[in-house]
């Protein structure tokens, strides 16, 4: 295969990963990295580097749309980001001390987790919080969200737990080169009980900052390969932009179940390759 | 506040656009130079070990790979800039808890790049 063919194939697969990642809200990385490693036999570190860069680009490129319609809560985002950047820094530094096979196994386990949350998440069963956590009062995290029935205020629960989950999410982002959307959603949907649109858009907004911390470390380790990242970045970015435009509504249950099965299979494959030392 | 938030959004969009130009132009030149080479997966092991900020900036206009590299690093700088602007918003609002929170994030972000200097 020539480099030209290889780059075009990467472009297509990255586009698809970005597209599906935007539809499901999980981000492109969790499909992209297994695809690069399992199909194209790319070194997992380079796959992680390319993915992290794409996460940064996607988060930055889509922010303006969400800032315009007023869903993003910057205060919640920055509060949670304090945990995420610490996690990302430690996670990214740790990568150099772990074997490729161990990273693949951890990645596989994270795919299981993501599959579970994708399958289980049900935004129609949104239960708004009635009371807010003392921290939310102190930090003024409570906000309001534009809905079809006008501006609706919301309260923020369990801020400390959310901060803790975000620190874990940040570590996984640095450790695996992903946006770790599944955990961020867990922190904001489940712990804080934010409205679906607020948690999705705020998570998407801050993911770029978390990824930048990991990327800084990856750069110094030499995990960011320009030649590989070039088609991946362009593919994921445009995939994510079209994905966000195609379905502004949340992907249907069927689509999400299908996607959950795909990442489950990828997870099994990653763990199998990792354990058999086949990477 | 809202105006400033939109400013951040616009800055991010412009930043991604600039980065994309460097990456795409560099990438096209690279494919022109090496597109018909056969892929050995070792091709993807060309990472320079002595990797520094000044070298990346110097290489940005002198080689195709250098241009891509610069575009990628530029994305990281855009994130620093956006956190910096967010910090500016909180300073303006005299919201000192969030000034502290955002400064902390900015510090970690800059720290993660220190090894590149």
Mean pLDDT of chain A: 86
SS field, number of helical segments of chain A = 11
In terms of structural class, how would the helical and strand content of chain A be classed? Answer: mainly alpha
Unreliable runs of chain A: none
Give the integer mean of the pLDDT values of chain B.
Answer: 86
**What is the succession of H and E elements of chain A?**
HHHHHHEEHHHHH
Q: Cα distance, first to last residue of chain A?
A: 20 Å
What's the helix count of chain B? Answer: 4
The helical percent of chain B reads: over 70%
Largest sheet composition of chain B: none
Which descriptor suits the 3D outline of chain A? Answer: globular
Oligomer: heterodimer
Overall body shape of chain B: elongated
Describe the 3D structure.
The complex is a heterodimer of chains A (279) and B (117). By secondary structure, chain A is mainly alpha-helical. Chain A has one domain (3-275). Chain A is 73% helix and 4% strand. In chain A, 61% of the residues are buried. The mean pLDDT of chain A is 86. The longest helix of chain B is centred in the N-terminal third of the chain and has 33 residues, at 2-34. Chain B is elongated and about 55 Å long. The mean pLDDT of chain B is 86.
Write the layout of secondary structure elements.
The complex is a heterodimer of chains A (279) and B (117).
Chain A: H1 3-24, H2 29-38, H3 44-68, H4 74-95, H5 100-120, H6 134-139, E1 143-147, E2 150-154, H7 159-176, H8 181-191, H9 196-221, H10 226-246, H11 253-275
Helix pairs in contact in A: 1-2, 1-10, 2-3, 2-11, 3-9, 3-10, 4-7, 4-9, 5-8, 5-11, 7-8, 7-9, 8-9
Chain B: H1 2-34, H2 53-59, H3 64-92, H4 96-113
Descriptive labels:
heterodimer, A: mainly alpha, 11 helices, 2 strands, 73% helix, globular, B: mainly alpha, 74% helix, 0% strand
